[in-house]
Structure formats: C-alpha cells, structure tokens
Write a structure and sequence with these properties.
five-stranded mixed beta sheet, 5 strands, Alpha-Beta Plaits, 29% helix, 91 residues
C-alpha cells in the first residue's frame, strides 16, 4: 500500500552531511518527497508502507543528535513527488 508520511525532528547540526545521506537512503528505499532542512527538519514523504518503515528506522538510527522524532502517516498518497529533494535554509 502506498502511503504519505510527515516526519519532523530537531537536528542540532546542519553541516554533517545528514541531508544528502537521507536523500540517498530515500532513493534506496524507493521513497519520494521533500526534506525541508533547517534546525527543525520536516520531511514530506511517499512510498510503500514497508519501505517507509525502513526509511523511518534509518532516520532514527542516523539522526544521532535528536531524541524526538514525530511521524504521522496516512493513506492520502498524492503521487505529486517524482523524486526526493532537499531544500536547505540558509543560516
């Protein structure tokens, strides 16, 4: 089943390569969407339920400087994303 997920967490460092590693993981798991990358990271993602769970697990294992991750999913798959993009705010 294809699902839509909103993932949010706080990341203390934006200079550690996490954004690109996350994008690489998204492609590995077949996840499309967008990461809005600042101190607070917001990911809007879409993909198969099982692969989304793997993606979420990957994020939890790799954020390292955050203990809190919020994750909401729904069956409102839009198909609007064709790839996984990163938008990084300037500091």
């Amino acid at each position: 089943m294809l699902i839509h997920a909103d993932i949010t967490f706080i990341k203390n460092s934006s200079e550690d390569g996490f954004g690109f590693a996350c994008m690489k993981a998204a492609y590995l798991f077949g996840i499309t969407g967008r990461m809005d990358y600042n101190h607070q990271v917001k990911i809007e993602a879409e993909g198969h339920h099982d692969k989304m769970q793997e993606f979420i697990s990957w994020i939890k294992e790799n954020i390292k400087d955050s203990d809190i991750l919020q994750y909401n999913s729904s069956n409102n798959y839009s198909g609007k994303f064709k790839e996984f993009d990163i938008y990084r705010h300037s500091v």
